[in-house]
Amino acid sequence: MERISILMYHQVGEFSRPAAHRANYCHIRRFKAQMAWLHHLGYQVIGLQEAVRCLRGEQPMPRHGVVLTFDDGFQNFYDHAFPVLKHYGFPATVFLVADLLGKRSEWLAAENRDVPLMDPEVIRKLRSEGILFGSHTLSHPRLSRIDRGRMHEEVAISKERLEKVLEEEIDYFCYPYGDFDDAVVDAVREAGYQAALSCIRASAFHREDPLRLPRKAVSHGDSLGGFFWKLHMKNKRKMKI
To answer: Comparing C-alpha atoms, which of 210, 209, 228 is closest to residue 218?
Structure first.
């Protein structure tokens, strides 16, 4: 059965081996090797918009389809990942924390892992280069654990604020920490998003629920063999974040 692997990255750069949260880091050396692998072996790296159309049955599913997504909008996406993507002509989608543009990743401050986030000028430059952007809420909370009024604001107002920055519709959403419940999904639908990405570990198949799309996390320690295994073998749904 044809399927699409939606890959999830966070930070890309030069990192020593992390003691925890390995899925939040991808060393630039390994990222370059992964992108070269996709290019030379003929994978169809497609944009999120095209993937959603395929999953809805509006166009044929690609063979060996891959989507590249990056959570949080770290400055190191621009510094390290984007030049590699541009070299290969690969599309990508970055999910932004709307109230923290140009600031630091405050949700990581308690763990001393807060780092710079891209500012609106860099974001607009990347958009002009073809990078797509979506919402990752206003402040990166666990949406199912906050009161419903604030949850609706995190979902809907983040969309409005990013639309002002980019002067275009924001159609895609990503659940922080992969945390959601039915009420959160309903809020995403009501806000007008066309699709939303989770941290459910699996491939995406035809007629997949567009508001609960699964992804495959790329981790700091993934060798090319591990990367290949995730692309081709890690297809069964797994809720572990």
So the answer is: 228
The top-level CATH class assigned to 3-232 is: alpha beta
Environment class of residue 44 by beta-carbon count within 10 Å: exposed (0-12), middle (13-18) or buried (19+)?
Answer: middle
Note the pTM of the prediction, 2 decimals: 0.94
- Is the pLDDT confidence value at 16 over 90? no
Domain ranges of the chain: 3-232
Q: Under a CB-based contact definition with an 8 Å cutoff, are residues 68 and 215 in contact?
A: no
Structure tokens of 160? Answer: 């409005």
The answer to whether 236 and 216 have CB atoms below 8 angstroms apart is: no
CA-CA distance, 231 to 215, in Å (whole number)?
Answer: 10
Spatial contact of 22 and 221, defined as CB atoms under 8 Å apart: yes
Q: Report the candidate in 236, 240, 167 with the shortest Cα–Cα distance to residue 204.
A: 236
Write out the E strands in 18-108. 25-27, 44-45, 65-72, 93-96
Tens of pLDDT along 72-118?
999 999 999 999 999 999 999 999 999 999 999 999 987 878 899 99
In the prediction, which pLDDT does 19 show?
61
Classify residue 237 by burial, with Cβ atoms within 10 Å: 0-12, 13-18, 19+. Answer: exposed
What is the C-alpha to C-alpha distance for residues 181 and 123, in angstroms, rounded to an integer?
30
